[in-house]
Amino acid sequence: MKAPLLFAFFIAATLQVCAQTYRLSGKIVDEKRNPVSFASVYIRNTTYGTTANEDGVYEFKLTPGTYNVVFRYVGNLERTEKITVSNHDEELNMTLANEPFALQAETGTGDEKDAGDDIISKVIDKREYYLKQVNEYSCVVFVKGVQRLTKAPQNLMTRDVRRMLQLDVNGRGILYQSESLSKYNFKNPDYVKEEMIASKTAGQNTAFSYNKASDLQVNFYKNNFDIEGLSGRAFVSPFASNAQRFYNYKLVGRSVKSGRRIAKIQVIPKRKNEAVYQGNVYVVEGDWRIYGVDLNLTKEQANINLVDTLNISQQYIPINDSVWLPTSTLFDFHGDVLGFKFKGYYLAIYNNYNVNPSFPKGFFNGEVMRVDTQASAKNGRYWANNRPVPLTTLEERDYKKKDSIFAIQNTPEYLDSLNKSRNGFSPLSYLIFGYQNYNREKRQSWYLEPFLQTVFYNTVEGWGINAKVHYIKGFDNGQSFSVTPELRYGFAAKMFNANVGFTYNYNPSTQSVLSARFGSDVLDLNNAGTRSLLFNTLSSLLYENNYIKLYRTHFGVVAWQHELTNGLLLNTQVSYAERQQLYNTSFNHIFDNKNKQYTANNPLANPPTVESMLFPTNQALTAKASLTYTFRQQYVVRPDGKYFEPSLYPKVRLNYRKGINGVLGSDVNYDFASLDVFDDRMKIGLIGFSAFKITAGTFLNRKSLYFMDYNHFFGNQGTTFNPTIGSFHFLPFYEFSTNRSFIEAHYEHNFAGNFLSKIPLVRKLKLEELIGVNYLAQGKNSTPISNTGLMQPVKGSYTEAYIGIQRFIFRVDYGIAFDGNRKAIQGIRIFYGIR
Fold first, then answer.
1. CA-CA-CA-CA dihedral for 506, 529, 731, 669, to nearest 10
2. ∠ CA(426), CA(429), CA(433), 5° rounding?
3. Do 620 and 672 meet the contact criterion of CB atoms below 8 Å apart?
4. Closest CA to 123 of 289, 355, 275
5. C-alpha span between 748 and 649 (Å, rounded)
6. Contact predicate 589/544, CB 8 Å
7. How many CA atoms within 13 Å lie on the side-chain side of 307?
8. Sign (positive or negative) of CA dihedral 538, 544, 548, 550
9. Cα angle at 596 between 591 and 601, to 5 degrees?
10. In angstroms, how far is CA 11 from the centroid of its own chain?
């Protein structure tokens, strides 16, 4: 959409007029002359309004005429003022008195606690009706966010830190502020499409961010509400169908507003440390609908992350005689992290509701958000004319300062200087993180992998070097091209390998990627994944555990990926390889365990320390294809590309692999098919979230195949483990590999602190508790190893069960594994962000 059309849209949608408009502004205070922050101001019998800023100042534009202006804030008396707008700006200041909610408004109802329960029961009875009353609507949404640092430890607030965060000499100031303007479209039950017209940010987001309309869609008629970023579990609405199991309700009093009787109800959690709110809700009696909410979550009560207290305030207004929808939603928060005290808010204002938009067929096509190409290019004049909430003096000063700094920091001279500085080489940084060099003008970079991942040791190659460089070139249309050469040399085996890969992302909107790789390499016999070079080096040298088993290949592979339609992704690959068995050549170690020897490079060797033949040198022409379907796949379109949102439903993937015999001397002849059903994060309401993966597969034909062609499993041997769903905690890497039918199942549930949050002292750690089970079953017949005369016994069933605790990237699990009915192993496994 072009900029002039966008401007016309906004004028039509937000101001509802094309004629000359004038500003109505003023300040809203309480009886003590304190500003009433975020008070709602709207025109009666319309859906056009605004909200005051933190200083209580409001403004919006009106055409000449007479209006009934409503001023409203929870806890204060609502006031309506008639004002006539002539051919000039108008000022209307307002004082909102504290509202006296009186219990004497109605007698004979029993005590106030029972009266509160009775009122809420009637709202709950109509909850489903109001949830479905409006089948679809559209509106214009303005979202504003501010994060401020209010206090910082002086010993940490150096000049460089203050300069980087743009704070004053006392370490105070605005860290981050954002504004956005969107058209928001909704259809029951959960179809969403947002069109962001304008967006502005300044500063660094140091906590969490809700800067689009869909981030602040709070509906307390729903049973539960998730607050992304602050907790892994959902919170029970005070109006949920089962809310009275979690809350007590106390009638504070009643008041009459615009001819309607409003009941103020105190919401009181029945038990400590549950996923519940506390505070007040306001109900329209007779209609038994929500008038407003003023609820709190605290880290002591709700065990939320990042902030100490979160206040959620929401106000509803009548759209017509029977329909009420939110006019504003406010998230107000403050916190203290290691002595850094901060506060802030995110505010959404809803205007120009249309409850009969008549969306065309196919309108909700999976695109949940589209950011206009000119959204971030709007200038200061645009925002001054169109933002519904005026800036405070501090916010305006911060914008000017940061805009000036931004202008300087985006000059070619500054960017070149910054580019040169970032490209500086640091030996320590290269050791751990690698080295990256970026050319801003050419939009290209190259990356050298960390030294710790370059030098390795294994018993096949001895000490070695695996040098890998990544080069990537980006283009304005979102396309990219990369080249990855790799050189590998093992000193003990005197074996040199080299290969190079190419990847061309030629259509990001359809995930279309063409890639190829050619050369020679040393690969793991288990292609599902075992240990990294670094961890295998450590386990070999320190403990004489040479877990990974390797073979050499000279190969060429070409792959293509393309999204056939939204949610259906096709992956194809054709490869040709010559595979050669390798044997141990080196037996170095740091600590000599007299009772232990290195095992042979043949994972099936018997005895395990004696080398033997696993497979002869062979050639393999292989074709692979997979189809992955994501139910109701959702995505966001930004100026720089298409980004996929986490799926609300499980994914299904169909895999097929064919070993082609006779072509180019290929020795393999087999057909393998499998089906995966999986979900990485499946929300389970109040008790956290689950993940699962189920795979069933079989070899339809196994006339000729070799050990690397088998189906392998994501096992684990060692203290550290991979927490990815689909991996095992204790399964040996090669022992269960099969060329027969199999089924594997993985399930894990994260309770998100539901139990540990109820234990004193422990709850302060904000740990998450997990349970899980992994299962594998396959045929019981012996499996011949092609062209070797060896037989690999196939296992029956294998089961793991485990419990664990987690905090961010650190996790500790304790589990037990059973090989059939026999307990095979038990122990502790840890994860700390490195595998």
1. 80
2. 140
3. no
4. 289
5. 16
6. yes
7. 26
8. positive
9. 100
10. 34
637 CB neighbour count, 10 Å cutoff = 17
| Cβ atoms 650, 630 nearer than 8 A | no
What Å distances lie between residue 700 and 279, 659, 670, 695, 742, CA to CA?
63, 11, 7, 16, 12
8 Å CB contact between 354 and 138: yes
Q: Residue 155: which H helix or E strand, with range?
A: none
* DSSP element (H, E) containing 235: strand 235-236
Residues 63 and 823: their CA atoms lie apart, in Å, by 80
Q: pLDDT tens digits, residue range 215-227?
A: 888 999 999 988 8
What the block records as the tokens of 705 is: 């195949």
- Report the Cα 59 to chain-centroid distance in Å: 36
What is the rounded distance in angstroms from the CA atom of residue 143 to the CA atom of residue 182? Answer: 8
Q: How many helices (H) and strands (E) does the chain have?
A: 10, 43
User: Residue 196: which residues within 8 A CB-CB, separation 6 or more?
Assistant: 180, 181, 182, 212, 213, 369, 370, 371, 372, 375
CA 430 to chain centre: 29
- 561: number of CA atoms within 13 Å, CB side? 15
8 Å CB contact between 102 and 254: yes
Q: Which residue has the tokens 């990485």?
A: 680
Q: Counting Cβ atoms within 10 Å, is residue 166 exposed (0-12), middle (13-18) or buried (19+)?
A: middle
Q: Which two tokens stand for residue 229?
A: 């970023």
H-run or E-run covering 9 = helix 3-10
Query: Which has the closest alpha carbon to 258: 298, 232, 291?
Result: 291
**What are the helix (H) ranges across 296-337?**
299-302
The CB density around residue 265, as the number of other CB atoms within 10 Å, is 26
CA dihedral 787→793→797→799, nearest 10 degrees, is -90
Task: Give pTM, 2 decimals.
Answer: 0.88
Q: Which amino acid is residue 170, in one-letter code?
A: N
Say how far apart CA 574 and CA 554 lie, in whole Å: 14
pLDDT beyond 70 at 104? no
Structure tokens at 299: 């880290």
> Does residue 667 have a pLDDT over 60?
yes
Q: pLDDT tens for residues 393-420?
A: 999 988 988 888 888 888 888 888 888 8
The string of pLDDT tens digits covering residues 289-324 is 999 999 999 988 888 888 899 999 999 999 988 999
Nearest to 772 by CA among 730, 720, 738: 730
Q: Please, are residues 488 and 503 in contact by the beta-carbon 8 Å criterion?
A: no
H/E element, 412: helix 412-422
Report the pLDDT value the prediction gives residue 506, as an integer from 0 to 100. 95
CA 806 – CA 812 distance, rounded (Å): 7
CA angle 808, 810, 815 (to 5 degrees): 120
CB 498 within 8 A of CB 520: yes
Output phi, psi for 503, to 5 deg.
-135, 130
Distance CA 578, CA 619 (A): 4
Q: Among 350, 39, 335, which Cα is nearest to 219's? A: 350
Helix 393-409 to helix 412-422 angle, to the nearest 10 degrees? 80
Q: CA torsion 179→185→190→191, rounded to 10°?
A: -120
Cα-Cα-Cα-Cα torsion 512, 516, 522, 528, nearest 10 degrees, comes to 20
* Positive/negative CA dihedral, 515, 519, 524, 525: positive
Residue 12, helix vs strand vs coil: helix
Instruction: Band the pLDDT of 47: cuts 50, 70, 90.
Output: confident
Number of other residues whose CB lies within 10 A of the CB of residue 120: 24
